[in-house]
Amino acid sequence: MMNFQYRKLTDKDLVHFVALIKVFEDVFGLKNFKIPGPDYLQSLLEKDNIIIYVALLDNVVVAGLTAHILPSGYFESSEVYVYDLAVETAMQRKGIGKNLISLLKDYCAGLGYREIFVQADVADLHAIDFYKATGGIAESVIHFSYQLAYETEKAHEPGSLANYRTEH
After folding, report:
1. What confidence tens digit (pLDDT) does each residue in 13-34 have?
2. What gap in Å lies between CA 155 and CA 33, rounded to an integer?
3. Which residues, at least 6 apart from 50, have a Cβ–Cβ distance to it below 8 Å?
4. Alpha carbon of 129 to those of 116, 133, 135: distances in Å?
5. Is residue 53 exposed (0-12), middle (13-18) or buried (19+ Cβ within 10 Å)?
6. d(CA 90, CA 102)
7. What class does CATH assign to 5-139?
8. Whole-model pTM?
9. Cβ contacts of 45 within 8 Å, gap of 6 or more
10. Which residue has better confidence, 157 or 75?
11. pLDDT in the model for residue 150
12. What confidence score (pLDDT) does residue 164 get?
């Protein structure tokens, strides 16, 4: 039986954050992806409005999620948006993703946040089934993206994270 450990990353966990981004790269099939520099990634770890969890097997990152805390103007609380969640292909169907969602739900409930939400591409039936199985309630919405003129050229390279959601 595999013994997974789960950790909410702190500003001391740059190595694990880089490893998580490499898991995202592999699972999402990003091509020609260039990982952001360590100074930028460290700055993300130091922010209070980003939540990052990883699952470790023998101290190696095999899964994780990133989420963003969004304060609301409609009520005195925040909502949380799960930006990315991935489990290495060989580690899927072992409850790791479910445990990551559960940890995030417990953490956010403890802070009094109102809701967690996540988007899944209509064609990604595996993700849709996963989110339903973990208690998510599907909503019919259309997501719109705006490409900004001031983005750097690197963000427009094929396979970049900035383009991943519009390419798939």
Report:
1. 999 999 999 999 999 999 999 9
2. 10
3. 44, 66, 67, 68, 69
4. 17, 6, 10
5. buried
6. 21
7. alpha beta
8. 0.85
9. 9, 10, 11, 13, 14, 17, 52
10. 75
11. 67
12. 46
Task: Sketch the domain layout of the chain as residue ranges.
Answer: 5-139
Give me the residue label for tokens 């922010």: 47
Place of tokens 């445990």: 99
Sheet with 60-71, strands from edge to edge, namely 5-8, 50-57, 60-71, 78-87, 115-118
pLDDT at 143: 85
pLDDT 10s digits, 1-12: 789 999 999 999
How does strand 5-8 pair with strand 115-118? unpaired
Tell me which residue of 114, 117, 108 sits closest to 85, measured CA to CA: 117
90 phi/psi in degrees, rounded to 5: -70, -15
Residue 131 has pLDDT above 50, yes or no: yes
At residue 32's C-alpha, the angle toward residues 125 and 92, to 5°, is 35
